[in-house]
Design goal:
The chain has eleven helices and no strands. With 178 residues, it is mostly helical. InterPro entries: Homeodomain-like_sf.
Length: 178
């Protein structure tokens, strides 16, 4: 007598993989452990993904696509509010923040390119130096609340260290607000 056959879709396995990675981290993922977590053999995993490395790449791709979808739905052209895009994204997608924290993933490789693209298309800021400063501020916003004096002091220190003059910054902000 043959055992019951259950089909596991690629989407289901990807979802379960993301739940697994949120709990245990990307480095610890193995086919056997993931199969046990999903309640299946390793066969469906290798049917849908060529390797565990391929599965990890798909997880990272899914995170980036999710961020890009979030940005596509955003309608913020105010420079100051763009600083909080990452923080807002993670407040909505807490599981992704868990995956990143548990797996010690590089935020730059996942989010920087789409963030720059969003800023360029929704503001008048095009200069690399200013984009980098906004990115650093966005990363800084993750470890503070919106009204944190420490965050604003750090933000000002970063801008000052990078020799952005008050007049220059003021003219850019005036352009943004007009």
């Amino acid at each position: 007598m043959m055992g019951r056959v259950t089909n596991y879709s690629k989407e289901y396995l990807l979802f379960k993989s993301m739940v697994y990675v949120e709990e245990y981290g990307m480095k610890s993922i193995t086919a056997r452990d993931l199969a046990d977590f999903c309640g299946c053999s390793t066969y469906p995993i290798y049917t849908h993904f060529k390797s565990i490395s391929g599965l990890k790449e798909k997880i990272l791709e899914e995170i980036t696509v999710c961020f890009e979808r979030y940005l596509a739905e955003c309608n913020s052209n105010d420079v100051l509010s763009t600083v909080y895009l990452l923080k807002d994204f993670f407040s909505i997608h807490e599981s992704i923040r868990g995956i990143i924290a548990k797996s010690e993933l590089d935020m730059n490789s996942l989010f920087k390119r789409p963030f720059f693209s969003y800023i360029k298309s929704h503001t008048k800021i095009k200069e690399e130096k200013l984009l980098e400063l906004l990115w650093l501020n966005a990363l800084g916003s993750l470890s503070s609340d919106n009204f944190s004096q420490d965050f604003f002091e750090t933000m000002n220190a970063v801008w000052d260290k990078n020799e952005v003059t008050d007049e220059y910054l003021e003219s850019i902000l005036k352009e943004q607000l007009s």
